[in-house]
Model the fold of this input.
Amino acid sequence: MNKTKKRNNTGGIIFIFLAAILLTAYLTNPKEEIHQERLESKLTEVIDEIMAERQDDLVAYSAWKLGGNLFVRTFVDRYVTVDNYYFCSLTRLHWEGESY
Done:
């Protein structure tokens, strides 16, 4: 009698699952410009909140309203880099010789 064994294909299922995860990570990894845009918007939002609390300092508040976006954009361009590893990205801030 010849008994037919059912083959266990767990390795193939795990491979397909991992391949799907890596493909999804690769396709959804944001580009450097998107990292910078989101960081600029978050910095602007935080500084807007701080300036709203300090409206009594008219000089600082007016300077922020006039040139705040330019300041934030220049800061991000000069001190922020994005390391792209294809499946994930890291945003780094370089300040006083340190990287965060």
